[in-house]
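Customer escalation, tier 2.

The customer says the design service returned an amino acid string that "doesn't look like it belongs to this structure." They asked us to rerun it and document both sides in this ticket. The original structure tokens are below, unchanged.
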């Protein structure tokens, strides 16, 4: 069964913006941390940003000041606003959700391509 549904990826020119969304199934209860990771071709998956249930955020140095993570607990949804995009931001972006019960879930991934 589908647990996480991602949307918002696509092709954008350098300097442009995109907003990713990830809705978690209502069957995932007591969500703690929600976050985004990315994987570029030939590279390992890396952290982009995370947000806890009390809205504490953490960003990788490469996106700090350009990306903003937020969440809507009523909708079980996490967002990633990406501004000032660079070609090196090109990757498949994955949503990650962790519950206080110790379960972890991954989205199917959404492609973000930054190119002129």
């Amino acid at each position: 069964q589908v647990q996480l549904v991602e949307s918002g990826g696509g092709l954008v020119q350098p300097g442009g913006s995109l907003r990713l969304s990830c809705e978690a199934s209502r069957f995932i209860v007591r969500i703690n941390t929600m976050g985004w990771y990315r994987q570029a071709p030939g590279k390992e998956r890396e952290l982009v940003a995370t947000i806890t249930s009390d809205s504490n955020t953490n960003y990788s140095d490469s996106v700090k000041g350009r990306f903003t993570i937020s969440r809507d607990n009523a909708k079980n949804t996490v967002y990633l606003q990406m501004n000032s995009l660079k070609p090196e931001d090109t990757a498949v972006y994955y949503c990650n959700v962790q519950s206080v019960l110790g379960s972890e879930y991954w989205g199917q991934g959404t492609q973000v391509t930054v190119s002129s």
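Tier 2 assessment: The sequence is consistent with the input. The mean pLDDT is 95. The two ends are 37 Å apart (CA to CA). Sent an explanation to the customer and offered a walkthrough call.
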